[in-house]
Design goal:
Layout: E1 6-17, H1 23-28, E2 30-40, H2 43-48, H3 57-70, H4 76-90, E3 96-103, E4 115-122, E5 124-132, H5 137-147, E6 154-159, E7 163-165, E8 176-185, H6 189-202, E9 217-223, E10 228-229, E11 234-235, H7 244-254, H8 266-277
Antiparallel strand pairs: 1-2, 2-3, 3-4, 5-8, 5-9, 6-8, 7-8, 10-11
Helix pairs in contact: 3-4, 7-8
Length: 283
């Protein structure tokens, strides 16, 4: 069990459906078995004996059965992904889910008991910085916020107030308008980054000068407690602890959130920055 979460388990839900690479699998169909673990909090429901405070596992079973029977996929990997998404979209008390799709009648041609795919999917808490210093800055920033509302796999949770700041990085340009938003998402960090780049391109963002002027800048600051580094993406965002245009809005909407490397909260980092550098630098 994942720490701090209760579980609702559904074992061996039997579903007759039509999934498979071969045409005969889609035509005749076969029996699948579905195992689910719903990660949630059952405390209030258990204390008050009230179904509305929990997740109706009967309804979940009917949802999964209906979805699997109304859709057809080549791969049970795709079945698992879609089942996980449907549960997470429909049941707000479920933070994460394990989905296992077993296929005991898979056309392998050798003796076997079953093949299966098992995945874990869940909502991730992410903080994203927004900045603009070209054209209608408020319009561009609002477009960045609105873009988070256009996908089922992203939920907008909070947006800071906008702050005008001087440019960061030594490039002479107009002042920025900056802020931070909190979202929940089912996207991986790289999938989210790709989407943010799409949103920037929709705002005519040009990546011509490092730290140069831009219509819309969207940067992933924190992704849960993840620490990662790749050629395309570093989390937590590099140098965020030295930027008041990041820490001020973070302190406003998430002052209690702790930096996964430095071990200090956003409120503590902002207080430390302002006491050591006065106003700090802007962007």
């Amino acid at each position: 069990m994942r720490r701090g979460q209760d579980e609702i388990r559904i074992d061996n839900l039997e579903v007759y459906a039509r999934h498979g690479v071969f045409p005969e699998e889609k035509k005749a169909g076969q029996t699948f078995y579905v195992n689910l673990v719903l990660y949630t909090n059952t405390r209030r429901a258990g204390r008050q004996d009230e179904l509305s405070l929990s997740t109706d596992y009967g309804a979940v079973c009917h949802l999964v059965t209906k979805w699997m029977q109304e859709h057809t996929y080549d791969l049970i990997e795709t079945v698992a992904e879609n089942v996980a998404e449907q549960i997470l979209f429909r049941y707000p008390l479920v933070h994460a889910v394990d989905v296992e799709i077993r296929k005991p009648q898979a056309p392998i041609g050798l003796p076997f008991e079953s093949v299966s795919v098992k995945i874990h999917r869940g909502w991730h808490r992410v903080y994203i910085a927004l900045g603009s210093n070209m054209g209608d800055r408020k319009k561009y920033l609002q477009a960045g916020v609105d873009a988070m509302k256009k996908r089922d796999d992203i939920r907008l949770k909070a947006v800071s107030s906008w702050r005008q700041t001087v440019p960061y990085g030594g490039v002479e340009q107009e002042d920025f308008l900056n802020g931070v938003m909190e979202v929940q998402t089912l996207l991986t960090p790289t999938e989210l980054l790709d989407y943010l780049h799409e949103v920037e391109q929709g705002a005519d963002r040009k990546r011509e000068i490092h730290w140069g002027p831009r219509t819309l800048d969207l940067d992933i600051l924190l992704y849960d407690d993840l620490v990662m580094e790749s050629e395309e993406l570093i989390i937590p965002h590099v140098d965020m602890q030295n930027r008041d245009f990041v820490l001020a809005p973070m302190e406003e909407i998430a002052g209690w959130v702790r930096h996964p490397i430095l071990g200090l909260t956003m409120g503590q980092l902002y207080a430390q920055l302002t006491s050591s550098r006065g106003k700090g630098k802007g962007k």
